[in-house]
Amino acid sequence: MPNAAAKPCRHTGCGVLVRDGTGYCEKHKTDRNIGKFADEHRGSRQSRGYGAEWEQTRKRILRRDKGLCQPCLKNGKPRPARQVDHKIPKFEGGTDDDENLQSICTTCHTAKTAEEARRGRAG
Ligand SMILES: [Zn+2]
Ligand SMILES: [Zn+2]
Q1: Do 40 and 94 share a domain, yes or no?
Q2: Of the bound ligands, which one is closest to the alpha carbon of residue 28?
């Protein structure tokens, strides 16, 4: 028999007595995992440099550009943008300032990233 004292499950409103020391009943053991994975997810987002601050910037730029892809707009074919892109890539000295950021659709972004990678290798 486990000798740990029985404690009510930590899931809000559950109250089932738990004796194995985990803090959660059989039904709510997954609550622990959800908490753990959420922490790992937050950590990885921050280590990539895309935190809450970038999320704010991204929303601001998309709003400024009325949610339209800027390269497509210049070609006279406005399309909805999903991403925000550095006009001058950071590895070429571009900044995170609003004037160096533009809304961009996935197609243009993929093409531009490939082009930049090619330039980066050549230069
Ligand atoms: Zn429970
Ligand atoms: Zn586009």
Answers
A1: no
A2: 1
Q: pTM of the predicted model, to two decimals?
A: 0.57
Q: Are residues 35 and 62 in the same domain?
A: no
Return d(Cα 84, Cα 41) in angstroms, integer: 22
DSSP 68: B
- Alpha helices, DSSP H only, in 1-123? 29-47, 52-64, 70-74, 106-122
- Residue at 1 is within a domain: no
The predicted-structure confidence for 23-64, as pLDDT tens digits, reads as follows 899 888 887 776 555 555 554 444 556 688 899 999 999 999
Distance 90 CA to ligand 2 centre (A): 20
Sign of torsion, CA 83 88 91 97? negative
